[in-house]
Structure formats: C-alpha cells, structure tokens
Write the structure tokens for this entry.
Amino acid sequence: MWFKRTQAEVLEFMHVIGWVDASSYTEKIIQITNLNKSDLTYDDMQFACGMKIQVGLRVRDFSERQWRNQYFRYAVSCLDSKSSEIWEKVNSYN
C-alpha cells in the first residue's frame, strides 16, 4: 500500500503544479484507490479515506452496483466532500 500512497502523493503534486489536468488526475486516483472495483472492501475504503485528498467525482462515472456497496459510498464521501451530487447519492442509501 505504501507504493500506491506514494503514487497518489506524486500525482497530487503534479496536479497542483499543473502537469496533470483534473480529468487525468481524477481517473488515476480512482485507479489507485480501487474505486473502479465493483466490490470495494473495508481495507480499500480505509486506504482511500486515509489518503486525505479531494477529487472531483461524478455519480455517473460509477455503476449502481458500486453505489450499493457501503464501503464504496464511504470511500467516495472521503474523496469528494464538496459535491452535492455525490452527497445526494450517498445519502439516498441511508
């Protein structure tokens, strides 16, 4: 996991200084944090939430199966705490 965390930190730095655009940054963070998996686990969620980064996510980028997974919803809410679209989707399962 340390390697993935390092990847994310380097990627975040590259995004901040403008070497990586927002779309590519988000796509790579989704891959690094395993949000592209349909069966996110507790450990995946812990890793994503422990990263303490914010990305712009969109509800339509994920399947309904993913949204039904509680660990996925929690991980997404850790990574995107500003989007009202994300929060509405997360809260629709509570």
